[in-house]
Structures are given as structure tokens and as C-alpha cells.
Amino acid sequence: MEPRLKSPPSKLAKLKPAIAALLPGGLPADVARFYAKSDGLKFSLQGEEAVLVGLAEMFGGLKKGAFRGHVVVKKADLDELEWSDLPFYERFFNEYADVFDKKSLDRLNLRMRLKLLVSVAGESTELGIDYFDAKPTIYFVHRADAAYPLKDLGFDDFVEWFAKFGTRRWYFAFLDKKAEASLNIDLRAELERSLEDFPPEAWAPLLARLPKKKEPGPVRAQVLAAASDRPVVLTSFPPLKQPPEVLDEEHPRGVAFSADGQHLVVWGANHEVVVHDVGRRERLWKQKHAEAMDLSADGQTVAVLEHPRASERADRLVLRACATGKPLHREPWRPGCALKTLACVGGGRVVVADTADTLHVLDVATQRTLKTVPRVKHVRRLGAAGDTARVLAHIQAYDEGAMALTGPSAVKLLDLATGAVVTSWAGATTFAASADGALVALGSSGKRSVVRIVELESGRVVHELQGGATNPDEDPHAGFHLAFSPDGARLVVSERVYDASSKTVTSTVSLYDAKLGTLVERVDLGRNPERPRLTIDAEGLALSADGVLCVAADAYGLRLWRV
């Protein structure tokens, strides 16, 4: 299995004056020798292609202003930069990275001065070279977010290995332990997997650079803060049927109370996670770049799916202390693919669904992957089912082009050991389970909404709650949400109720006695007085152990009552 190599004619003589204007000393000797013979290198092997770029592309192209050197950027300059006009924008860097101190600014400046060597097809990965340091260094750049030096790799050796393997991950052999920890990748395993099609003797020198993996030793237990004993003062919140207390929070979409009722975790449409002290009405901490979140059953850990920038899907799981927002682990968990949704389940575990139709079960204390479950398609949402062995999932296909859910909807109870479906409820579009896993509430939308409270083990329908009429022209998922109280005694339901005669929609929140199946109270969320046709929707619901009901109304803040 030999690759085909193509060497385009050299353009070094033509571009030498432009290069000298950027690099007064010219190209390093080894780089100049290569480009004097060939303007890059094209690698082809059984349909796989890779390109070591020519000189013009290396420096950003011949377009006016692109072929230029590097100006050191200061923190005060960041807001004034025309980012998208800069060479290699969103390949080596972008404006979304947080710059908060000199080190983070230095890291940004490093990525901004890199020149391109290779782009890895199908991955957000580039290989670049820094000519502006004392010693030219080749870097591996991941998602325009971080650059890792390929240590002890000179340019001649780079060309030699590229000519053998193209963009297979041979370069992982030149990354160090710090890069391995940051990327959350087993470098040795990834190199072996990437080069398994080639003769072992061809890449034995690369493998020899990486240490053999040792068996993991005992893990030190996480020391978590004890639950607060400071009670929430219920009388400080208005009762239902009275105007709620509204916490000023922009575009909240999802909410969860900690087990002791002291902390309220909020996820918003602006991709932020915010944690409040409920009694003090105080914001404790905020985290940007959040795609989704869930709170552990003990209320100690917030699991967050985070993305490198707003235009991309989440690619990492960060486990944070609820009280402080500090990460519980030195590096986030990164599986190497985009992530969709997650749920904290019993036994100190978290389940994450990725875009490759795989579920990952992780241990919160160690962040180790305990199990992967493949071929679980079209997962929209996950939820705990009261134990560590199973998880609830809303399953429905999504059309990326139309940006809409399509096809049949179902809620399924999945066995995490095998991925097998234990039980399926066809037609259900939303769900909530009691903390002990005894009951599951399932919402379905037809001409009228229906919520069924079901015994999870027997499948017996305990109660069937009839809701209001639905608008046939609306998404049936809009505003339809369910939540149990921590003791399973109450169920709260939000829905959009349609009046056919006036052709108007009203959002309501209904509180039920889950044991008796009877309505306790119903609240009309009302409308925006400035835009009377716009209904105030409930996007997220939570009931605390202390009897506080929180409704996250998108664009209208967090509304709290006592119940």
C-alpha cells in the first residue's frame, strides 16, 4: 500500500520578495530547501487525499492584505479588530475565545501568527508553523481554540512522515502529556487506530515515542460541600394566583433546584449557565458557551455541555461544583465528536448523547467512561429514571434543513448496559420522572393535550390528565413541559391552550396532586402587554423540596411562587 505523491512546480523564486518582506531572514533553511524543489506536496492513497500547502496558501493567499506578517495584538485592540478579514480566521483563531489575562492573550497571539501547513479533511484540525519565534515550531491546532507544539519534529521529518501517512494521526506521537490531558485523548490508542492499515514496522518509531499505558490506580474521592442548612423563606414568595416574583434573567430556558432548595441552576437561550442563591436572590456564578446542562440528584454537581464558540456544537462535558462553578476535574471530557444532550442519573453518573448516535455513561467522580452504547438514534432529550441501569429518552428525528422535528415521536426507557428498549410510549413528546423512579409522566399532543402518569415498573396508567386544545398550526412541543416535585407528590404541567373561536393561544401552568390525579391550581402566564398577540411561554419548570415553583419564561425572566 504505497501512496501516490505529486510535487507541484516550485514558486519560491517568484514569491521570495514577498516572503522577505515578512521574514527578513527568509524561510528557515530546511523549509527553503523543500520549497525550492516543490510548491507543497499532494498525497493520495485509495481515495484519501491530503495536501501540504504551497507557499501562497501557507501565508494566507495572494489576495491583497492576506499575504502578511504578524502584528502583536494587545487586549485593548480586541474589540476593534475586523476578525473575519484576518488570515486563517476560524482556522487558527476566532473572536469567541475568552481573553482574561496575559497568558490567554499570548496563546491567542501565538495562533494568530501561525502559517498554514496542512488542513485535516473532515476535522476542525490544522497543522501550522510559527516562523516568528526564536526557533520555528510546528503546531497542532484544535478547533481554532488551542495550539499544541509538535515537539522534536523538524520540518524535514515532518515532510518525511507526511509523505508516508498523509494526515493520518501520526503527528500525535509528537504531542506531550499536557496536550493529551487537555484534549482528553489517549494518544497511543488514537495513533494505533489511525495507522492500523499500514505495516506495523512503518510506524513503530512513532509508537516508541509514546509511553505504554499503565493500569489506573485507586481514585481519590471527590470532597463535596455539605448541603446548606439555611432554609428558604417561603413566605417571601407570593402564592399562586398572585403576581410572581421575577428574577431578572435574560431568556431562561431550563431550570433545576438543588436538593436542599438553596440553589437554582438556570440555562438560557444566550448559551449561559447561571446559578442563584434562592434565599438571597443572589447570582453566585455564570458560565458562557453552554449548550445544555443538568444537575446531579444530590445538587452538588452541574454537568454542562460546552462549545468552543457560538457557531459550533458542544464538544466537551464540564462537571462543575454547584456552589462555586469551579470544574471538578483539571480538564473537560472530550470524546472527539459533537454532543447533543445529557442527563445526570443515579449512582453519581452522567449520560451524554453525541451526534454519532452513541450514549456515553461517565462516572462523575473520576470522569471515566464506564460504558458506551452505540446505535441509539434521534435522541432529543435524556432524563433520569431513578436508577443507574436505565435512562429515559425522547426520540424523534430532526430535519436540519427545515429546522423542525419530523416523523413519529416516542419516549423510551433504555437499558444502559445493552442499549435495548425496555419500554416505549409511542406518541409521547415530553416526559418527567419522579426522583425515586416510581412514576413517569408522559405528555402527548393531539387535538387536546394529555398527560398520563404511569407506574414505571408495571406500565400501569395511574392517572390521565386532560389538558387544553392545541393549535393545529403550531409545533406540538412548544411550551409543553412537565416536572415532578422531589417527593413525587406534585406534578406541574405547562402548555399552550388554543381558543378556536378567537384564534388565540394562552400559556398556562397547572399544579396537580400526582397521587390523586386532581388539579390543585392553574395559573395563566399572560401575554406581553406591548405585543398582545405574543404569548409568554413556559420553557422550563422546577419544584423545590421547600415548595417553591420556578417557571422559566423565555424572554420574560424566572417566575417564582410558593406552593
How would you explain this protein's 3D organization?
It is built from eight helices and 36 strands. It has a four-stranded antiparallel β-sheet, with helices on one face. Strands 8-36-35-34 form a four-stranded antiparallel β-sheet, with no helix packed on it. The protein has a four-stranded antiparallel β-sheet with strand order 9-10-11-12, with no helix packed on it. The longest helix has 11 residues, at 12-22. The protein is elongated and about 85 Å long. Mean pLDDT is 86; it is low at 216-229. InterPro entries: Host-pathogen_enzymatic-act (IPR051200), Quino_amine_DH_bsu (IPR011044), WD40/YVTN_repeat-like_dom_sf (IPR015943). This is Anaphase-promoting complex subunit 4 WD40 domain-containing protein.
Strand content: 35-45%
**What is the count of helical runs?**
8
Question: What is the C-alpha radius of gyration, as a whole number of Å?
Answer: 28 Å
Q: How many β-strands, per DSSP?
A: 36
* Largest pleated sheet: 4 strands, antiparallel
Low-confidence stretches are 216-229
User: Strands across the major sheet, in which order?
Assistant: 4-5-6-7
Helix content: 10-25%
Structural class: mainly beta
Note the gap between the termini. 71 Å
Mean pLDDT: 86
Shape: elongated
Descriptors for this entry?
single chain; 563 residues; mainly beta; elongated
Short description:
The protein is mostly beta strands.
